[in-house]
From TrEMBL:
Substrate binds at R55. It comes from Cognaticolwellia beringensis. Gene3D superfamilies: Phosphoglycerate mutase-like (3.40.50.1240). This is Phosphohistidine phosphatase SixA. InterPro entries: His_Pase_superF_clade-1 (IPR013078), His_PPase_superfam (IPR029033), Mito_Ser/Thr_phosphatase (IPR051021), SixA (IPR004449). The gene is sixA.
């Protein structure tokens, strides 16, 4: 199984609340670059789980606009910045097992994305994500642990 964990694109610093911070134009472009990279890899997704925060929703919109193979999109309230990585891990094990998902992507926030990679991988590495970066984890449902394959940012991609 492949689990992709993505941080939202660059967001505005000022908004009425943190949850309402929108993407900048650059943030939209960052998400599109990652979407193009995933399209070039011919990466399908059974489901994309997205934080309810505005910047994550806009990141998912821009990302999905570049993809052709996304079966399902769900807003997931437990992947906001202060949520618990262990709770997300437990949720993913349950839903991916029940739905037989093989390829999923989560669009979330720092610091949760770093904690989540540590939680999902056997070496518990906690990478720092630049905006719109995505980590790919080769995940073993039987062991309920995976291995970090790559962490890529829009700046690393040459299209």
């Amino acid at each position: 199984m492949q689990i992709f964990v993505m941080r939202h694109g660059q967001a505005e610093m000022v908004a009425p609340t943190d949850a309402l911070r929108p993407l900048t134009e650059n943030g939209v472009e960052e998400a599109k670059v990652i979407g193009q990279w995933l399209r070039e890899k011919n990466q399908p997704f059974d489901c994309i789980f997205v934080s309810p925060y505005t910047r994550a929703q806009q990141t998912a919109d821009a990302l999905i606009s570049q993809l052709s193979n996304v079966a399902n999109r769900q807003t997931l309230k437990i992947i906001t910045p202060e949520d618990n990585a262990k709770d997300v891990h437990d949720y993913l094990d349950a839903v991916c097992g029940a739905e037989q998902y093989q390829n999923i992507l989560l669009v979330s926030h720092m610091p949760l994305v770093s904690y989540l990679v540590a939680e999902l991988t056997s070496d518990h590495a906690m990478p720092i994500f630049q905006t719109a970066s995505v980590a790919q984890i080769e995940y073993d449902m039987d062991k309920m642990l995976g291995e970090l394959i790559t962490l890529i940012s829009p700046n690393d991609i040459k299209l």
